[in-house]
Amino acid sequence: MSKNKNVIVVGGGIIGLSTAYFLHKEGHRVTVLDKSGMNGGASHVNAGYITPSHIASLASPGMISKGIKYMFDSSSPFYMKPRLNADFIKWAWNFKKSSTRNKVEKAMPIIRDINLLSRTLYERIKDSGELGNFHFDKKGLLMVYKTQKARDQEAYVAKRAKELDLEVVELDSDGLRKVEPNIELNALGAFHYECDRHSTPTQFMERMIEFLSKQGVAIHKNEEVIDIESNGDNISTVITDKGSYKTDELVFSAGSWTSSLSKKLGIKLLLQAGKGYRINVESQTNISMPAILMESKMAVTPMDGFTRFSGTMEFSGINHKIRRERVEAIAMGAQKFYSGLKIPKEDINNAQCGLRPVTPDGLPYIGRTERYKNLVIATGHAMMGWSLGPATGKLITELVSEKKLSMDITPFVPERRF
Fold first, then answer.
1. Distance, CA of 385 to CA of 390 (rounded, Å)
2. Which terminal Cβ of the chain has fewer Cβ within 10 Å, N or C?
């Protein structure tokens, strides 16, 4: 292993904190910089899934066509706001190029491997007791369908999952009632991915921040990077609106903002912000199993003390505008599946959103850049950011520490061609 280094991590979401965690474990001196209060955004409002089952990338055949179809329906589950923006147009063109059956198939074992690595690391963190007794459940994930068409679509994914040695069983309506006995689901059946896990994101994030702070990791909230100084191919200093920091290694894990940071260094990353929404219901729902409601295209997660309903993918630039029609679509989608469920208006009014960084091919950017020898990129995880946090942090730490990598990261090279 190389000598211990002074490492700056820009971005305090699940990717940045996981990176800080493993870097600290290796003996590096770590500073985390985040321009927010680190109490919101995608790492706090996601579905909380650890999902080896999600082997099909977002960049799948027909997605761009769906985006165009839904372009003028702001309540649709996959929404692209019409806009003439060069970065968005280039990203969309490369997304379309990546959305082929062959590329999706090729990516499946890669997505499985990094998810399984991350699941193992979550379990190790849980077993270590370092973060206390945080919520981490092993019930699996239901893919619930109302129609034969949706069932047939998921059957293909389930078949491929089995071929990749992931645990999945199909449940008919009776089987579904047995695993979710306390509320009636209006559905034909479901595929139960027993390989999956779920957690309560805000709880985990709070405890990780507390642990890292106590361990001596410097965490600077509400501090924005405004400039970066370099000496040739070596980054030397990170300048913020509150100070400057010398660094041996720099990690960009700032989610959807990573592309604008990279532009400061002349590096163009194709990345778009995909907005997702969540509704928390603290009253009793009787829902005990995490589920994706296929026709409604949304997720349901029983978390510690509440039930979360989340979903949608909205490409409308970097903003946190809450589109009421999209939030209400989530509530209505859930109520169509669960008999008697009524999501209170107050909970709908308190909905939040987060921006998920999406690459053109649906695979994250993890690795060093060509231009700077001490710059590492860690972003672009789309809807799997929560799932892949620990694995990404571990891989980045292995790069910085010059150790053997836990898996081949060639498919994640930041400056790859699409």
1. 10
2. N
What six digits make up the tokens of 159?
């078949």
What is the tens place of the pLDDT at every residue in 307-356?
999 999 999 999 999 999 999 999 999 999 999 999 999 999 999 999 99
Closest CA to 411 of 375, 359, 371: 359
Of 257, 273, 263, 267, the C-alpha closest to 368 is 267
- What is the chain's length? 418
Domain edges within the chain: 6-412
Say how far apart CA 418 and CA 411 lie, in whole Å.
Answer: 11
How far, CA to CA in Å, does 355 sit from each of 50, 274, 277? 18, 5, 9
Q: pTM value?
A: 0.96
Distance separating alpha carbons of residues 168 and 47, to the nearest angstrom? 20
Q: What pLDDT was estimated at residue 323?
A: 92
Pick the CATH number of 6-412 from 2.60.40.10, 3.50.50.60, 1.10.10.10, 3.40.50.1100: 3.50.50.60
Q: Are 46 and 386 in contact (CB under 8 A)?
A: yes
| Model pLDDT for residues 141-159, shown as the tens digit of each residue | 999 999 999 999 999 999 9
